[in-house]
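Deviation from plan, reported transparently: 4'-deoxy-4'-aminopyridoxal-5'-phosphate complex.
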Amino acid sequence: MAQLSERVRGLVQPYLAGIEPYDPNFTPCRVNLSANENTYPMPVEARASIDAALAATPLNRYPDPMSNDLRAEIAAWHGVDANCVCVGNGGDELLYNFLLAFGGEGRTLLNCPPCFSEYAFFASLAQTDVLDVWRDKVTFQLDQAAVLAAAPRCNLAIVTSPNNPTGDLAPVDFVRELCAACPGLVMVDEAYGEFADPSTSCEGLLAECDNLVVLHTLSKAFGMAGTRLGYVIAAPDVIDAFGAIRQIYSVNVLTQAAALAAVRARDQFAPVVAHIREERSRLLAGIRTLAADGYAIESWPSEANFVLVRTPNATRVRERMRDEKSILVRDFSYAPGLADCLRITVGTPDENTEVLVALAELVEKE
Ligand code: PMP
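Because the crystal trials were delayed, the predicted structure below was used instead.
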């Protein structure tokens, strides 16, 4: 997508004039490990249930706005009441709606970069100020004390657990303190939560923190990024606000049917997630071996389905992976705090082996 023309810059609302179109920096490649998708084949029986559900879905009727069958199934899975769940067109829509409903002019979002860039983008669309509390430059851990000190001055906060692109968790005890310190809502984005130990989820805090919102998606662990289904879990009155401002038909009938079948078949996805976690360990171990052998590559532990690495001339390394090996990974070199960093999605065993072979060839020796 192109930049806004001068003409259109003069026509859009003044606060939007500086906006840049989102560029996922995508090039078709044989091995695509750039967007933290799930590259494993979907479990065969789950796929068959989804296909049957899609085939049985009439297309002539409008969708149920609140996706009640789906939210009831999600609620039963998470052990909450159905009125504690709202679904959306991917987690992205719910993040936008969070800012739209609870942010706005004169309000401030507490953000902990480097993190998912959409938070700041949606804040700008919703004319919400952003207060950045940067993570540690070396370890990328949250600066918990600084976040808690800033929280009373903020109207809402988002922390990501595991964080994209750094892969670390927000500790549950810290989130509890953050909920107490922030006068408004605190969202914990657990888009990658299934790849971490279940004990690290902040969902258990929902019973005691009525200002907590937990975000999930079927895009990652369930391998359904194309389906576009995310959901939030929160107190019923918070969910009412999500329900009131949403585009009523944003989750179409096919997505509702596919997501319901997938959530019913959820147990079948557990082996895939376990496999990705094993492969994450193997990929990280391989990268650490390269470092031990004198290759200039640094990595960080990850609880998600991706790993972050830092290597000299990362942009060039990524281009060569793309052009010479047809392997696409994500370049974060341009992002503040992430100089020379690449994010590599954990793929299938063959894909990960290809990544390790390519890194051994393209990364500089110290
Ligand atoms: N949160 C985080 C941290 C993400 O990385 C993403 C996707 N990249 C999302 C939310 C949204 O995912 P989706 O819209 O596909 O549900």
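The two ends are 39 Å apart (CA to CA). We consider this an acceptable substitute for the interim report.
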